[in-house]
Design goal:
alpha+beta, 6-stranded mixed sheet, single chain, about 180 residues, 5-stranded mixed sheet, about 35% strand
Length: about 180
């Protein structure tokens, strides 16, 4: 089974947005462009939307981002890092909420699998003839990874039962949604 990560904060605007010029960060973390050298000179910073408060942010081990970043609490990364180091590498980031700064970690996924079942997924045809993925359906995959990106659609990632079980065994505050297969 494959899953999408969800924030434990059950509010529609529980989202964080990357501050500043997002092009390099999105290119590096989401689309695997660039070598990440910019991170030597830049601190990644996110602003919360009004669904997060200082209190619920402190209790969250995963933050939902408007771009498909994986943002985990420092506590969660410290606990998980050894287990998931082959699948993801983490970089420090700051999250601004209610005029306070919180330390989190943003992950770059290193593992790729064929996750999206192209034949069963739904697409929208553009006027120029190109097709855009609208509703992905996922393959049933082996549980040989914790977290992976799709080989083709690099902005799409999923976590496995193995990851879900690990999160639950450490009682981390991360929720999951089962992905369609």
């Amino acid at each position: 089974m494959l899953y999408k990560l969800r924030t434990p904060v059950n509010k529609s605007n529980a989202i964080v947005d990357l501050k500043g010029d997002t092009k390099k960060a999105v290119g590096f973390f989401i689309f695997d462009r660039d070598n990440g050298k910019f991170l030597e000179f830049t601190n990644l910073s996110f602003n919360t939307q009004n669904g997060y408060t200082s209190e619920n942010l402190k209790l969250s081990d995963y933050l939902q981002a408007s771009s498909n970043f994986i943002i985990l609490s420092v506590k969660a990364v410290k606990i998980l890092e050894r287990d998931i180091e082959n699948d993801v590498i983490f970089y420090p980031c700051e999250v601004f909420c209610e005029q306070k700064i919180f330390s989190f970690k943003v992950g770059k996924i290193k593992t790729f699998r064929s996750l999206v079942n192209k034949e069963k997924s739904r697409y929208r045809k553009l006027t120029d003839g190109r097709e855009v993925l609208m509703s992905p359906v996922f393959h049933k995959v082996r549980d040989d990874f914790y977290i992976a990106k799709d080989n083709t659609y690099k902005h799409i990632y999923a976590v496995s039962d193995k990851f879900k079980n690990l999160i639950e065994s450490y009682d981390l505050n991360i929720k999951f949604t089962e992905l369609p297969s």
